[in-house]
Structure formats: structure tokens, C-alpha cells
Sequence to fold (413 residues):
Amino acid sequence: MITKNKFRKIILYTAALMLILNLFQYCSDNDDTDSNPDNKILSPCENGMAGNYPCEGYDLMAHISVNELAGPGEQANDSWGWTDPENGNEYALIGTTAGTTFVDISDAKNLIIIGMLPTATVKSSWRDIKVYNNYAFIVSEAPGHGMQIFDLTRLRDISNIPKMFTADAHYSGFGSAHNIVINENSGFAYAVGTSTFDGGPHFIDIQNPINPMASGGFSDYGYSHDAQVVSYNGSDTDYTGHEIFVGSNEDGVVIVDVTDKENPVGISMTEYNNIGYTHQGWFTEDLDYFIVGDELDEIKTGINSRTLIFDFMDLDNPTLHSTYMGPTGAIDHNGYVKGNTFYLANYTAGVRFIDISDIANGQIREEGFFDTYSSDNSTNFNGVWNVYPFFESGNILISDIEGGLFIVRKSEI
Fold:
């Protein structure tokens, strides 16, 4: 008689075998030398197209399909990046329904799928990845998943690829989680959307990555869907040197002082008009403004993609500073800031690159885009889930639900 546990192992082993076969096929399919004289660009953005993809100002450097990343029938979700401090190699960490796939993208014309860390329990459409001190921390909404911890230095000088990896450590202080947030300055992780602390932030000391320690949590403001945590040095000197949590809490934005893990203090809660679902946000680099995406307002009200900019110069009293309306009715998802650009994962409208250099005067404008979902810009949950813009090389990772991994870069003028 086959027990449930044995049946689960059979399913995982079968999925692993299928993935390995697909990865080997990918490697063999990419042995040929590309005839493009510029060996760094797969498809330059010319006359509004990069190959089959609409674009403006950004070239397609490389692409791997979701089938090659995870196997037939799977989908991509979150993504993050890691740069090896020893040799400068860049890696894409791509979440899929089946697990997390690691890709060496150091040579854009010769991407190497190193292997995969399978999901800790069962498959899930939601997976989230962050990096601290050369370790990846991975959560999922899969039941009982907890937090996987993986030593990324294992990706160096590896032979007999692709590999099917196992985690180096596991944290079981919660089961499922929607997201994981890390403040690299403090060495603390914050799991959000768990069944603990009413879905609010669950604090974890990860200063020793393979020995994570539960460190409390905060429930007063309820469920946080996503968040950013910073060691604060912005305009509000009342909080200089404090560790500040900013949560996107479905029906507004919350700010919590989490410096003292045993006594976190709520600072403020902020709402705005026509709330659909307060989904995710990111600080400008000077910490004066916080840029927020509402995931359901396009569906509920029929408006174009809406990005809300909050003035955070007084953390006790944030105010809505301005609103940016995108050119399509596509749903906005995750957004990040690097320098004077806001990088917005915009589902069916691809990634939008938004100039925020004059954000103080409310002047926001789109400077370019790359549309990995070329069939339409409809108000549906297809296309780009996440964008990662933080590589020093200028490589930008895009994880597309149906399309897999894309790497783009700003066109040279």
C-alpha cells in the first residue's frame, strides 16, 4: 500500500526528473554560437520592437522559457538577484510553482541553469525570495512550507549541472507566508501574511543564516501583504537610527517602529481614495517618498494603472503627495526604486520604467517600457509578476508568469 508520504515523494521525484530532462534540453539547444555581432544583445529595441516584444528604450539581452526553468505546465512568479562577492558573477533566482530555479546570467549569451530547489511541501502559485549575506530565504503560500534557507555560494564552480538542490536550513515558526522582507543592515527578516500575529510581521533573527531565531512580531495593524524595512536616516529626525517597517496592508499603508523587537510601536496608518487592494510599495532612495501600487483599483474602478506617491517626511503624518496614471489599463504589481527610476512590474503591460527625478514637484513620466506579454494590455493577471533592477551591471531581471525569465538592459544612445 502506498502511503500519502510515499505518494508525495513519488510526485516530487517525477517532477524533479522532468525538470532535469528539460534543463538538459535547454543546455543542448543553446550550444550554437549566435550570429549577432554584438554578443551581448539578443534583440535590440528597434522601431518599437525587440524581436517579438514591444519596447521603448530597453533591449532584450536574454530569455529562458518557463518550461525550461521548471518543466511543462509550470508558471513563474517572484524573482530576486544575487551577485557573488568573490567573482562578481550574477545569478537570477526565479520562483516558480514548482520551486526556485538558479540561473547564472553573467554571460547574457550563455545563460546557465545551475539547478533548482524544489518547493518544501506542495506546489503553489505564490513564492517569494530575498537574499541576505549570500543566503536565499524563500517562503510560499504552500501549506506547511515555512522558510527555506539556501547557501548561494554552492552555485560556484559546480559540476554536473543542472542540480536538484536541498535546503541548508529550514525555519518552521510559521507554515505558509505571502512574502519575506529583509533589512540587510540589521540582519532581521520579516515574514508577512502568515497565520501568526494576525498576518502582521513575524520577526526572525537571521544574523546566523543557518540558525534563524524567532524574535517576536506585531499584530496591531493586522495583515500585511508586502512590506519594506529600512534602517531609517530620512527627513524625520525623530526616527533617525530606528528600524522602520512600512506595510502594504490591503486597505492602507502602515508604519511601525520595529527597533525593539520585544516592544514594536505602531506609528501611523494611512488610507487613500478608491482603495482596491493596497499591494506593495518602495521608498525613494532619500526616504522622503513612498511609492505604492494598488493591485485591484483597475479592476474595481476601470481606471488605468495607478501609482500613488506618499510624502513620508513626517512618519507620524504621511500624506498623499501625487498620483501617476499609466498609459494602459493593466494591473500594477511590484515596483522598486533604483536612482531616479521606478521599475514597475505591470502584468500584461510588461515592465514600465518611470522617471521620478522630479518627484518632489509631482512630475512623474514614463521613460521606457519592455512588454513581455505582447498579445494585449488587458486588465488581467497575466504577464510580468516581478522586476529586479539592482544589478550593478545594468542587467534587469523580469519574471513573467507565462513567459519565464527575461533579461533586459537600457539601450545605449
Summary: Residues 6-16, 23-39 have pLDDT under 50 and may be disordered. The helical segments are 4-29, 66-70, 297-301. The longest strand covers residues 76-83.
